[in-house]
Amino acid sequence: MKIVVVPSGFKESLSAEEVGNSISRGIKKVNPYHDVTTIPMVDGGEGFVDTITKLKEGKKVKTQVMGPVGKPIKSFFGVFEENGIKTAVIEMAAIAGLRHVPQNMRNPLNTTTFGVGETIIKALDNGAERILIGCGDSGTSDGGVGMAQALGIKFLNENGETVFINGGGEINRIYGIDMSYMDARVHLVDIDVAVNWTNLLCGQKGVARVYGPQKGASPENVELLSNNLEHLAKLIKSLKKEDVSLMNGGGASGGLGAGLYGFLNARLHPRFEIIMKYIEISDAIQNADLVITAEGCIDFQTPNGKIPSEVARIAKMHKKPVIAFAGTIGHNAKINYQSGIDAFSSIIPEPTTLENSILDADKWLENCSENALRHITIGINLGNQMVAAKDVVQ
Hints:
Largest sheet: 6 strands, mixed
Mean pLDDT: 93
Order of helices and strands: EHEHEEEHHEHEEEEHHHEHHEHEEH
Distance between the termini: 29 Å
């Protein structure tokens, strides 16, 4: 049997490559002769730099920047050259991702994207002529204001005085924007950003309401963040003469998408569109008998451009069955049956803690894939028996 495994990573636990390896081991336990092709996928979050840089035979540059809670962290960006152009690859998750926010400090009112701006400066110092940014797995919701400050953009209060904005909870202090001090090199490079295309900055489906609680925001904090991001959208409109409040991808990484577009004139792209320029999966899926995908959580949001649904969409173009594994099965996950996923299951075998789930995810993935393949093998054998019996009767 030809099986293609196209997984995403499990946040704060396993990379996409590690997920694929675990699933492959489970398959081989059932039958070591199964032809398994593993294609790890990234969605702009964790693993974005490693994957793109490896594919382009580039290198990683180690850095130290301000983390999301205002303390220095060790981070990195990637660099590769193609057609004579030097491209820097930046992964938001490696700078201001949720994993860099301690559990007891998770409150997007107080986290910043300042380190993203610092990394852009370091990429420019490294000679980057193009910058590719992956937005995902963020622990912030400051609309890119922190990033802008690191690049020299100044925010003014109602008295016209420069104020330092530390997190999404302080955006309402901004009454004016002074772009004159921004690092001029930003205007000389192309900046492309991989985003979740369905993430919006404002409204009932705005990023504060959808993702704020996952980042530690209370209901009251969600309302404050939502109002502040609406305020930011008005400020950007006065600056750019464009409304970013409902712009596709504007809500990516807590509004960083809108900030990159509004302050740096970056181009936003559906993240899967960017990834598919570097990773080819269509041919492998077309030649497979079965497609397996995976992600940390499968729920009502999965059809909105997440890897399992995008893999399933391509698989259905070739009429291939799709199984998805997840750490957790969330609210209204059944909607994924409509997006091409034929079956999904959680890898967690028993009630457990988050810490144990993170530690045991590789073992559970292996066991889950083994069990799934054993069920499939039973189905194949039963089908063969029924065909044989029919032939005897005839």
